[in-house]
Automatic annotation (TrEMBL):
It catalyses: L-threonyl-[protein] + ATP = O-phospho-L-threonyl-[protein] + ADP + H(+); L-seryl-[protein] + ATP = O-phospho-L-seryl-[protein] + ADP + H(+). Residues 1-180 form the Protein kinase domain. GO terms for molecular function: ATP binding; histidine-tRNA ligase activity; protein serine/threonine kinase activity; RNA binding. This is non-specific serine/threonine protein kinase. Gene3D superfamilies: Anticodon-binding domain, Bira Bifunctional Protein, Domain 2, Transferase(Phosphotransferase) domain 1. It comes from Cynara cardunculus var. scolymus (Globe artichoke). Pfam families: HGTP_anticodon2, Pkinase, tRNA-synt_His. One of its GO terms (biological process) is histidyl-tRNA aminoacylation. InterPro entries: aa-tRNA-synth_II/BPL/LPL (IPR045864), Anticodon-bd_dom_sf (IPR036621), HisRS-like_core (IPR041715), HisRS-related_dom (IPR024435), Kinase-like_dom_sf (IPR011009), Prot_kinase_dom (IPR000719), Tyr_kinase_AS (IPR008266). The keyword Transport does not apply. Keywords: ATP-binding, Kinase, Nucleotide-binding, Protein biosynthesis, Serine/threonine-protein kinase, Transferase.
Amino acid sequence: MFESYSHFDKKLAWHLFRQIVEGLAHIHSQGIIHRDLTPNNIFFDARNDIKIGDFGLAKFLKLEQLEQDLDPAETTGVSVDGTGQIGTYFYTAPEIEQRWPKINEKADMYSLGIVFLELWHPFSTGMERHIVLSDLKKKGELPLDWVEEFPEQASLLRHMMSSSPSDRPSATELLQHAFPPRMESELLDNILRTMHNSEDTSIYDKVVNAIFNEETLSTKNHDNNAAVPKLGGNDTSSIHHTDLDTEMHDLVQEISAAVFRLHCAKRLEIIPMRLVGDSLQFNRNAVKLLTNGGDMIELCHELRLPFINWGDFDVIGGASALTEAEVIKAAMDIITRFFHPESCDIHLNHGDLLEAIWSWIGIKADHRQKVAELLSVLGSLRPQSSERKTKWVVIRRQLRQFFLSVLRPSSSVVDLLGAVNKLQTVGLRFCGIADQALPRLRGALPADILTRKALDELSQLFNYLRTWRIDKHVFIDPLMPPTEGYHRDSFFQIYLRKDNSLGSLTEGTLLAVGGRYDYLLHDMWQSEYKSNPPGAVGTSLALETIIQHSSVDIYRPFRNDSSRSILVCSRGGGGLLEKRMELVAELWEDDIKAQYVPLLDPSLTEQYEYANEHDIKCLVIISDTGVSQKGSVKIRHLELKREKEVSRESLTKFLSEAMASQFRNPSIWN
């Protein structure tokens, strides 16, 4: 903490001390004794906000724990005679050194006294620190000049360092009696609390008016402009783009649009911002702006850094898992135009599976978001990789500290370690290649309806991806949290992997995210319509990230795009879903716009109705007899009322020639 605390300031010293005391008051209220409060375990950021860390020696205030002696293994780094390394010795309360059978939170108050001295008496050298703290520890003596300058602080320090724990103040008592009048920052906190809790909106209006005071803003802008160095005549680095950058930018956007059109997508313009109010809210770090009228505006997700310039593709309706497979296919069709498929990892998860994992491990609902945040750093690492296993060492420590800070006295350390161990078991054993991880999860988790449904949908999704030859580097990652709160069913993330100079994989770069958002539609639909909402799934690609990491020479150009699309239909054979998927993928591969009805076994009537609704005139009809016996398909044009049977091998050639004349050349039907 004090490495960057060199310039002494009274207000800052009180501000930091108050936050430390507030932190102690909180952990003591949870029944926890820190027992190792030193500057090394106190951290503050650029805004001087304090965090207390390293709960490795912490204990619960439970009778059976208080009666236990201090584990000798836990005193690592403690110099009991003051002659070794200056570690926790100076901060250790007498009752801990003397191994009293029972200790309480007043042990932390003794340590706080030493911290308080270092806040009010910054040391210029390590030797000065050792001499002053040694005299205080062994003789109870403080520097005379310091006592004369700060008599009230010296009295408070001696009170906190009383040899009798019962004579020391508690953290709560310090907050009530030990501080001078509140500082400006604390007065502001009171104003903000009043704004939040009061029904009187005049205070909010006054604050907004002060923020947007033109005279104040003018002065601030003048000061900022004076501080910004002027660019030299040839220095345009902040806005300069090379011709190659511009070409690459245009190329990525053109290819994304072309792939979306191959999947028969319709362009939809969106409003790039919305008013934050009574509409459905989700916990995410979107950019928010305050208007001078006091309204808050949120920029849409695709405008958020670091994913400026997202490309979005959504499928409304259709069967679950099948439509997820198509949006992943569309995303991969774009990504693999710029990167080799072997360098891309697809991570899959399901909201119900994640809930089952939380319940199985015993993570409480109000702790899950924080645990998910700690685990999210694993998402960029390939499951089963040595890099992910190494990262678990850090994650275990962070999880242990978090659980110690929130668990109630009634909870045992055994339960705590059990939860951490189970999380690591899931992370190392059940995260992996899809066809290996799914059977393990089925065997380990309770076979309730929602868990079975989640695993079945993930299994179906993987099988559909396999039909489209997307089966390498597809992982089930059951600890991966969704990027959006409305992804309550299946969701996914696609990463770019690159080897470092040592041949091992580096952390992945996130290229695309997506998932099913029926939950969002259902919530928004209820207030507008009486009918049941359709299902929906979508993906968002980080186009700027693709631009930054790709090179032009990997690009494979498109042929001229036709405005007409083909509908691949089936007759009989139980829907022939895999055959329809394979055929439509062949057409996409040859840059022919094509789609199919995203249902398992649609009737021919349903497929004709789909063609009519989407203004599709040309059908490619496959049947179980035609595919298996003759290897042929039937082409039918609804508007021209013409049809022809062609072999699978000549299908794309026929369609390319026919679409060039909009199917109106009579010779193609002969």
